[in-house]
Amino acid sequence: GAGVSQSPRYKVAKRGQDVALRCDPISGHVSLFWYQQALGQGPEFLTYFQNEAQLDKSGLPSDRFFAERPEGSVSTLKIQRTQQEDSAVYLCASSLEVVSRTLKGPRSYNEQFFGPGTRLTVL
Amino acid sequence: DAKTTQPNSMESNEEEPVHLPCNHSTISGTDYIHWYRQLPSQGPEYVIHGLTSNVNNRMASLAIAEDRKSSTLILHRATLRDAAVYYCILRDVNFKGGKLIFGQGTELSVKP
Predict the structure, then answer these.
(1) What are the CA-CA distances from residue A98 to residues A42, A48, A113, B70, B85 (Å)?
(2) Which helix (H) or strand (E) holds B88?
(3) pLDDT of A51 above 80
(4) B5 and B87 Cβ atoms separated by less than 8 Å
(5) Which of A41, A48, A107 sits opposite B93 (nearest CB)?
(6) Are residues B45 and A98, on separate chains, in Cβ contact within 8 Å?
(7) Which residues in chain B have Cβ-Cβ distances shorter than 8 Å to A90?
(8) Cβ B99–A107 below 8 Å, yes or no?
(9) Taking the mean position of all CA atoms in its chain, how far away is CA A38?
(10) Which candidate from A41, A45, A106 shows the least CB-CB separation from B99?
(11) Which has more pLDDT, A99 or A35?
């Protein structure tokens, strides 16, 4: 039973370099989220996919950040021309539909399953 | 999204109960209360959630105040493995988006 996997686990980049971070969600999970976690802080939302559609990218800090999920499964977060302030742990999470509803019951959020993260260090 | 307030850190002894408080005085009637925790060097993991009634699962219990302006996550017998940062998060049941909005959380340390 594989959980969410991310690769690489660690990445060191020189300032100005482009990087690509990969996320393999749990099979069958429709929703996929990317978060950024700076040292000593809680994770912050970057972007959200439902299948292959990117429904929310309001958290992407600049146009240097780009995410895709072309076949509705694996996702890649790309950062162009990396800067030192991009140094952080990048977390990916997946879930079934964001919300589910029983036949007569209320809507309920499905839990998000997180990967171990990719620690990016920009020198 | 409504804001939550948690103590920065708490200490516990192994095998004793732990009560982790969360204040959410501006909670709306449609906000669920969720708890996630993050063990060192790992991604966050779901712990429990509730709306109005107290909830129990294999990991913890969630006690929600009658006015819903505060809640408490209860670990009945802390183990060394429970040392983590615990996040209290509000999520609108009317679904204003799936993202989790984390605060600073409470860093729980467990002494043997």
Answers:
(1) 21, 10, 12, 25, 24
(2) strand B84-92
(3) yes
(4) no
(5) A107
(6) no
(7) none
(8) no
(9) 14
(10) A45
(11) A35
